[in-house]
């Protein structure tokens, strides 16, 4: 999938990669960002659960790693996918198995977002939740983004709360709203 801020973040924090790239959820729906353009000189594999433009491998990573080679990928891109996975802990273990030592995983997930079934919508993850799903990775570049292009804020305790908007709904009550927010992080697989 991918949105413009995901493309900006990835090009800023992982401008090149030594090794193969796996994009999870790579099917082009017409508004998908072209992450392939960033990594033209390396092997690039698009994975999705259904065939389509941008998909080389059709497979469900919640079942097993399937035809993909273990300890192989220098970068795995997983944008706007994890919230749609019924068993994200199993999915996370399989992603880790596909990363080579010192390989990097770029995760982008909604933190504050509307329900959007693709085919369904199960979870929202904080930056701390992502760290817990992938405890064997070392995490860097924790950022939140809004739906405004190139608007990023460092993650941390209360960072999203500083972005809130209060709307007065009556003389004695107001509602607190947060903008749409995505979490962006890069994890590196530790060497053994």
Q: In words, what does this structure look like?
A:
The strands form two sheets. An eight-stranded mixed β-sheet has the order 3-2-1-4-5-10-6-7, sandwiched between helices. Strands 8-9 form a two-stranded antiparallel sheet. The chain starts with a helix and ends with a strand. The chain is globular. Helices cover 15% and strands 34% of the residues. It is α/β, with parallel strands linked by helices and 192 residues long.
Write the layout of secondary structure elements.
Blueprint: H1 4-13, E1 20-24, E2 44-48, E3 57-58, E4 73-79, H2 88-98, E5 99-112, H3 127-133, E6 137-145, E7 152-154, E8 165-170, E9 173-177, E10 181-189
Parallel strand pairs: 1-2, 1-4, 2-3, 4-5
Antiparallel strand pairs: 5-10, 6-7, 6-10, 8-9
């Amino acid at each position: 999938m991918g949105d413009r801020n995901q493309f900006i973040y990835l090009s800023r924090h992982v401008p090149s990669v030594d090794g193969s790239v796996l994009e999870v959820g790579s099917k082009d729906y017409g508004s998908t960002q072209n992450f392939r353009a960033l990594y033209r000189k390396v092997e690039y594999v698009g994975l999705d659960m259904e065939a389509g433009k941008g998909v080389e491998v059709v497979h469900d990573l919640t079942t097993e790693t399937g035809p993909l080679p273990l300890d192989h990928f220098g970068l795995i891109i997983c944008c706007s996918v994890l919230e749609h996975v019924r068993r994200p802990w199993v999915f996370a273990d399989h992603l880790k198995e596909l990363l080579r030592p010192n390989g990097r995983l770029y995760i982008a997930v909604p933190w504050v977002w509307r329900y959007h079934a693709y085919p369904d919508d199960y979870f929202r993850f904080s930056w701390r939740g992502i760290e817990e799903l992938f405890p064997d990775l070392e995490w860097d570049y924790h950022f939140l983004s809004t739906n405004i292009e190139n608007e990023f804020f460092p993650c941390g305790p209360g960072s999203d709360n500083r972005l809130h908007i209060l709307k007065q709904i009556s003389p004695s009550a107001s509602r607190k709203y947060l903008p749409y927010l995505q979490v962006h992080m890069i994890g590196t697989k530790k060497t053994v």
